[in-house]
Design a protein that fits this description.
The protein is about 55% helix and about 10% strand. It is mostly helical. The strands form 2 sheets. A two-stranded antiparallel ribbon has the order 1-2. It has a two-stranded parallel sheet with strand order 3-4. Strand 1 and strand 2 form a beta hairpin.
Amino acid sequence: MNPAKRAFDLWTAAMITPFVVPMILIISLLILITEGRPIFHPGERMKTPTQGFRLWKFRSMKVDPGDKGVSGADKLDRITPIGRKLRRVRLDELPQLWNLWKGDMSVVGPRPPLREYVERFPEVYNQVLRNRPGLTGLGSIYFSKHEAWLLARSASPDDTDAIYCRACVPRKAQIDLIYQRHQSFCFDLEIVRRTLFPSAR
């Protein structure tokens, strides 16, 4: 990773930790009281085409040992009441602060993909994952809502997978590669601004 980009990541982590940690503690307690354990959901994601890492989120769904793939309409009935509220404002992603500190993720970059899609589309992710995955990114701003709309049309795990592979993987990669070609410190700051203040886009 570029040393200047890593320095920005560490500075950002240091600035937000005093605010994020109390929120993590409060949400952890709410999940424990309303849903019980586990509080967190560690899922494997990829930070390079060959290297995975454990991505941390608050658990927002009922536990299913056989769960795999991306979330579509076929999983809606598993989302917990508190999980639905957390997802609406992306608070389920607060534990990724730990991934930022560890260097698994950057502040800005492509969202980290599942291993199964990296292995199925190596020609795509060999390019996309030249950048360290990010907490937010150009794809998060311009495609995440559309992706959710597309996947909400699925009726089964197979439908979800087919829609994701056909419509989401190539479009997200296209956006991520636009970011890659124009990456700069100022561009990263603009993406952070648009993430925090979406109405100002």
